[in-house]
Design brief:
multifunctional enzyme; five-stranded mixed sheet; NADP
Length: 344
């Protein structure tokens, strides 16, 4: 490794992050091209179906002749298969790039080492594993989806200082402040889908859309075993793709699918298996307590983000009390505290 390798790879990771919410279900990838210690081109995967990071970085190089004497930093192994775009490994080889530094190997079965092998066979000097932990965190949704065969699960709720997340009869209560609400809408753009249970859907009548932050709208997921949601509720308005998981007969209409679940099998594994089959790689779970507690009890969570307010209710529906470790971040968001846990 060279002295500035970590600096250039960190730049590539920062670039990759710019594709959050837009590259999915593809991974976040950044690429930096250097010549004699100076950046001559950089790019990232900006949009699913669009050019990959390596393509954009090479396009940014003004003097293509320098590519034959360049060192390329890429956050994920260059692809070796024809998808929506040609293989990036072939592109690097075609331009005569002599050195490639890779942060993470790609777990996707159609790549999975083939890109590295192709580069090495062509005589390219390949180094791997630089800032690998940072790279896995960046693409934690992608890695979890392909390694665990399920979506990455982010559980989120707001609770009062005395541990409640709703009124005594599930009536909604405004717990967190406007800053936390805005951050929640940002998170909704970062995950591919958003899930609630029956009681939350009934009592809160949520829209589950990102209205206070620009970005992609998530697919809405609702567990409604007996189809108790009134047709006038927001989740049935057809405004964005919505899946209803139910024991009733399935049907489809514009932007709405009813997915049949078997009453003989556990509910949550069926839901996760269906989402995996639909290539939905991450889910923000916003409640209610039945769904949250079931996922926590089963160990089916990757992150938990809790807004804690200074308000008190005195009585109500209790927030989950998981009793776990793994605090990733503790900060303030407006008047609220944010406790962010990662499942080790």
């Amino acid at each position: 490794m060279k002295n500035d390798d970590a600096l250039f790879m960190r730049r590539a990771l920062d670039l990759a992050l710019l594709g959050t919410g837009y590259a999915r279900p593809n991974p976040l990838v950044g690429c930096v091209i250097t010549h004699e210690g100076r950046i001559i081109g950089e790019g990232w995967h900006q949009q699913y179906g669009g050019p990959h990071a390596e393509v954009n970085a090479i396009a940014a190089v003004e003097d293509k002749a320098l590519l034959k004497k360049s060192r390329v930093y890429v956050t994920l192994e260059p692809c070796a298969h024809h998808g929506k775009t040609p293989p990036c490994a072939d592109l690097l080889i075609a331009h005569g790039v002599p050195e490639v530094v890779i942060c993470n190997e790609d777990p996707f079965p159609l790549v999975a080492g083939r890109g590295i092998d192709k580069l090495k066979t062509a005589g390219v000097q390949v180094e791997t594993g630089l800032l690998a932990e940072e790279g896995r965190w960046l693409n934690r949704r992608f890695f979890t989806f392909h390694e665990k065969k399920r979506p990455y699960l982010v559980l989120k709720w707001a609770e009062t200082a005395d541990g409640f997340l709703a009124g005594r009869y599930f009536q909604p209560v405004q717990i967190s402040g406007p800053q936390a609400n805005m951050l929640t809408h940002r998170w909704r753009t970062e995950e591919q889908a958003i899930l609630v249970g029956t009681r939350t859907a009934l009592h809160d009548n949520p829209r589950l859309s990102a209205r206070e932050w620009p970005g992609q709208q998530p697919t809405r997921l609702v567990i409604d075993k007996n189809l108790s949601l009134p047709p006038t509720h927001n989740l049935l308005d057809g405004s964005q793709p919505t899946l209803i998981y139910t024991y009733r007969q399935p049907y489809h209409k514009a932007n709405l699918d009813l997915v049949h679940l078997s009453e003989a099998d556990d509910l949550l594994p069926q839901v996760l298996a269906d989402l995996y089959g639909r290539n939905i790689q991450s889910v923000l779970v916003e409640g209610g307590p039945t769904v949250l507690n079931a996922l926590i009890s089963a160990g089916l969570w990757d992150e938990i983000r809790i807004f804690r307010s200074s308000k008190k209710l005195g009585q109500g529906i209790a927030a989950p009390r998981p009793g776990f470790t793994g605090l990733h971040e503790h900060t303030t968001v407006g008047p609220d505290e944010l406790f962010w846990y990662v499942n080790a």
